[in-house]
Queue: 2 jobs
Job 1
Amino acid sequence: MPQSIVDSPLPTKKPTPRKAEAPFNREDADFIIRTSDKVDFYVHRLIISLGSGLFEGMLALPQPQGTDLKQPFVDVVEDSNTMDAFLRFLYPVQDPAISTFKLLRSVIEAGRKYDAPQILAEMQKVLAHKQFFSGDPVRVFAIACLFNMEELAQDAAIEAVVTGRVLIGHKCEDLDDIPAASYHRLLQLNKRPVSKVKGKAATVDPSKIGPFCGRAVLPHPPPIFTTRRPPQEVASEFALAPASHPPDLVLKTNDDHSFLVHEVIIRFASPSLLSNLSPVDTVGQSSNDIPDTPKIPTYIIPEPADVTRVLLKWCYPSSPSPPAITGKRYLDILRATRKYSFYKAEADLRSTWDRYMISAPLEFFFAAAQWGWQEEAQACARELIDTKDDLADIEKLYTSEMETITADVYRSLLSYVDRCSAAASARMKTGQIPTLPLPPASVRNSALFTGDRQVLPLSTHCDFSLEKPVLYLEELLHAVRRKPSTLMVIDMARGRPVQTGPAGAKFLVALCRASTGSDTTERVMEWGMKFLEGYGNRLKDALSEVTLELPPARCAAS
């Protein structure tokens, strides 16, 4: 029987490089730049060395053995469109036309990468041109922030605010790439009143907002003075071991505390701790060292003593697990467990996330987002909603983590908050509240009904419409729109009797005033509470369907 023949794939033919358009195809060129799409730019070393610090340094190095000295070349990651524009700005020829934001940004990136200040200056002029500046000031703002063009970023931010272009749902890749703090400051500027003076262009005052491109100058916290513990006391926590197994390692913290530990325990608890630390001279006999100890290897750990102490307690089987920690140090310790692969400690800490998260939900949100912890990040977002009286206050919040994480993560939080608000305030009919009993006659005859007032006598539920709610019901919807939480309607906490929230209390008062007839206030209130309880459950279901759309976390460009 003949054997089956499996056809092997044909080898992929590599594209043949082609020459660039004039003037980068001259035979008198002495160097070739080959782009990612295999276009060869024939250039002159003198010109590119004068315009680019990186090329100057690279061309000054001796060429590797085997290089074609007549026409040496270098491969670059830029495509031919970017490199063509880049070189035309360097050469004494007519400047190229930059017609898209994508090309503009790629040329700026090349200018920064190749240390070409002339390119950066020219590109800033292009970015400030009316074509871009007036066409999409938000994107101009974003690119200016990415490349540290503070004056242009401020001008673009003012233009965006004055022309009403600052929208949370604004689709812009460049905006997603800037630091979250830069976008936060744009939102703060957007909240300020626009000044309109006759005969002058409208403007908005950017003072005291902080730099858009760099870190805000924050007031320094008061210094924390701690008394250094005696070395013997520090060592005793982890040095208590049988005489046959004395400590054989010292961990020295950044605040100059020393911990005597056992290498075998450390390596079991963390496979990467010691490989990530810097070894120093072995401990000797001096006033700063632990007395009466032999010389043993010492490693410098960049964490402070209170963080290191907790990490080590997780390592030693004789230590309580998990050790007691403070809310202020929770994230610092958790970061250290992830940094050094303390898997058990990380799992224990993650299980207590909700307990500590409530102390600083915004800071915890960015930490969870950075680690890709979807469930924990959404819990933080919900906590922010539940603890703020008005959603608008969330945009005012700031934490230093926003300086180093990209704006797309921050924008995902604001988008989630907006979508919760929309879900909470969506119109619904009382038919969607299946447990709602037939209302008293005085309620049925009140202004609460806006649709068909005819209700069958044997009906077990109320089917009147909330599509066009009257004033006091509109106030209830407005309240949950500002704070999309069941707490605004009714408190359904475990172990507590059902209680109305602040908006629900106003609804009950208005309901009693609007009701007519012989029904008692108690009967009207009883139905009103049933309505609020059903509405609260329906609201809870609606909010549970809103999911945080968390993008992959990235570090913002510095």
Note: The beta strands are 18-19, 31-34, 39-43, 73-75, 249-252, 258-261, 278-280, 298-300, 490-491, 499-500.
Job 2
Amino acid sequence: MGCGGSTQNSQEKEDYLREPENDLVDLEESIVGYPPPKPSLKGKKQIFTEQDKTTADDKARQIKVEDYRTLDDLAHALTDGLINDVQKVRTIFTWIGLQGSKKNKSKKGDNKSRDVTLPKTIVQQITQRKRSYNYLFISLCRAAKIPSVLIRGLGKSASYEVGDRDVDNLNNSWTAVYVAGGWRFVFPLWAFSAVVGHSKGTWTLIEDKGKGTREKEEESSGQTISHINDYYFFTDAEEFIYTCYPYDSKWQLLTRPFSKEDFIDIAYCSQDYFENHFKITTPNKCLYTSAGGVCDIGIKKLDKKESSYTYKLYFNHKESKTTLSSEIQLERYVAMFNEGPSVKFFVRFPCEGIYKMEIFGDHSPLCEFKLECNENINFIKPFPYNPECGFGPNSLTKKAGLRPQSHKCGFINIRKTTNITVIFDIKKTVFVQTSLIHNDIEQETLNKHVTNKIKGQELDINVNLPQKGEYALQINAKDKDSDGSFKNACNYLLTSENINKKRKPYENPIEKRIRKALQDQTCSNDVEALQKALDDFDKVDLDDKGDRQQAEERLAYLTLLKGTKYTI
């Protein structure tokens, strides 16, 4: 409880983000005559202003717990003179959170002679986990004539592991208050406490930002940290359900309530994910299963502001059926692809087992996923290169003065020839370096197979692959007048096959229908039909004319999933 950076070592295996199940004094969960639970028409940002916060927090700092002998008197002091219930609830919330910095702790045996109805005693009992934050918060709200209820349910607290199916041990409780014409969630315990460093000791970090490692986590109950986290004050229902599931579905406050199965399946997202407006673009679930030894996870920022992404990949060394071989090179098994405002992470698994993926945006944790690979995948190889900015044009490309013209997707599937040209428009005078990278071919050999040439305002990069397989094309640039080093501006992942079909000088009626079918399927959402249209297109060896490139870009993620055979 409280604010600031005070810590308390947690030696016991108690989950300090779960409220005590039994308060010293019973608390009536609701009161007859309260408005019925239903979804609110307005969100937190529409009813809670910075002025409300400043006014309420300033008042909360002026109130001393020892000056009041009853909760009614304390509630009156906290709310007197405030203009609306939002400010009143905020003052009560902040005041409770501030008490941790006051060191209101009793000496051993003090409670025997102390009046248990005194606000100071109640605060001390909360620090001893003999009463819940809910009790004090609801009691003060009700004393201020603000409808408030206790809600019981499941909460994904410190003991939760992403992907857990058995969540019945996560019982918890929180509150809701009726202000500004609707019910709003407040979770005092999670607002005033956090547990850091908690670990069951089951995970080994195997890849961090493209670098291989083998760091086993130690089992630890972590540290309990006191602070004030505004996210759990008036949390919007659409976000709250990701981590808190009321037993009574009416108190989800959602138009379409979740089932328990929905709650178990939903992605495990942090408050930074919601506050910074991210969205998962692949299935919004916490468990992914591999297909062909690979899976993909997509995410984007809804406000279209630029973000930098990183990740960590873990292996569960206790629950996996196999062990990680010491011979496996643990790096470059994850690659990031830029897709306009979105990014997609492709994960290749070094062996069968259970994995965990953490995704970070602008250095903040966004979401976690449990990944299961139940396949014999000894043929999987890592990516040839794992650039920090990912594959495909990105903000660094634009900053370098390069605008992609020929290839706007980070994946290029070369089917008809081993030679391709990647073209950029140049918006300023720059020097460019290009490199071709392969898992097995020596760099000296590869250097002979990539060239670049600037013609006026156009940069042409020519790649002639020495053999079929998977390659990375690295493009570095620097300003002509700069004395600094070259910096990575863009990268592509290239995959080739031995296809050398004869070209035809014209299109007959059947071929015209095949081209039209490809154009139509490129605009559809039917992945299988698009793949068939591409296959039909290739069988008759029609000229691209841009149709095949567009279809291939749309299907790039599926090709990656099934294309790992080309890494052999």
Note: The radius of gyration is 29 Å.
